Fold:
Amino acid sequence: MMGSEITITTSSPDETKKLGEKLGRLLRDGDIICLYGELGAGKTSFTQGIAKGLNVEKAFITSPTFVLVNEYKGRLPLYHIDLYRLNNIAEIEDIGLSEYLKGKGVTVIEWAEKAEDLLPEERLSVYLENLGGDKRRLSFKAMGKRYEEIVAKIQM
Structure:
């Protein structure tokens, strides 16, 4: 499958959030965003930005590490899923991941590599890397025409 890729470096948590917000404004019903990166890479800051771009009223998005799934109401529903504490595909299936992926709204998955076998072929994968201090490198990999369009708009 064709895929396009771009990389953007941010210099602060605020810039990382603003980039997420830009993405959030471009998202539509059924979009799936998969986040990859170590602890402290900026996944939650980025998701806070996505939420703002979706007009989620709740100002502070927290990492759902202990809840596993947080649902927020905005322009579209936002399903923020964190797979960090899950150890296998059975546990991931138990939280209803496949229902979220087919549902209405936008699904953002942290630690998406844990669910690789369950993820749809078409999605936007974002790889976040801590470059030291507040600098982060975000690599966007579009898989599918819809996500290629999004990546092209993020670059502008």
User: Anything to note?
Assistant: The chain has one domain: 5-155.
